[in-house]
Amino acid sequence: MKYTLSILLVTLIFIGCKEDKNLIFETSSFDNERCSNCATVTISVPKAMGNKKLDEVINNALREEVIFILKYDDEVNANSIDSAIQSFQNEYSKLREKFPEESTLWEASINGAVTYENDRILTIQLDYYLFTGGAHGYGSTRFLNFDKTKATELGNEELFKDIVDFQGFAEAKFREQENIPTSQAINSTGFMFEGDEFYLPENIGFTNDGLQLFYEQYEVASYADGPIILNLPFEEIQRYLIPLSL
User: Fold this and answer.
1) At residue 29, does pLDDT exceed 70?
2) Phi/psi zone of residue 198: left (φ > 0), alpha (ψ -120 to 50 degrees), beta?
3) Which residue range or ranges hold the DUF3298 domain (predicted)?
4) Which of 236, 235, 219 is nearest to 227 (CA)?
5) Rounded to two decimals, what is the model's pTM?
């Protein structure tokens, strides 16, 4: 009986240690004042909880990304999400003052979620939508990747052992998905890669199914085509990636 209890205790400790490697998040929500002349802003992003350096790195990166998406008024020194919301509102107010008959309300929504986490890598996806007048709004996705062991944010080139080698593989998969013959230029079917040369998107992130390459609207195709997304399963790309676990 004592032997059985000892095994159980060791097992629970082992499981607990493994679970401790996952970060703890809470949801941080932000919005602005509701009024007839106010833009509509809703933000919901994860916040890493704790006093570790990694938590600070993650939260700072998320804050800077949200500020970058929202900031419209260069005269405002936006150093927080609240001040970025105010920047967005200020620009809308200037428009209303200049064109009082303008009835279209500006809108911004940003939602973030953890899409991948193991003992080394963390990926957070931000989906956002902006409407600032005109025929249509603009929505997109941004990925933030982190090395938990080093407490650093990862650039795209740091996700791969050799990014040039991976790019060649990604181009082959892109051509296969989009039915672009290997004998023809990458833009031969209507894409708009600059210089008619394939390149990786700015937004690359991990999901539980693998790696996602996210080309924003206008990045390589027309607005009508929407975002172009290439999902690559882990089993196909493992040899190109940095070690994802310890």
Assistant:
1) yes
2) beta
3) 166-235
4) 219
5) 0.87
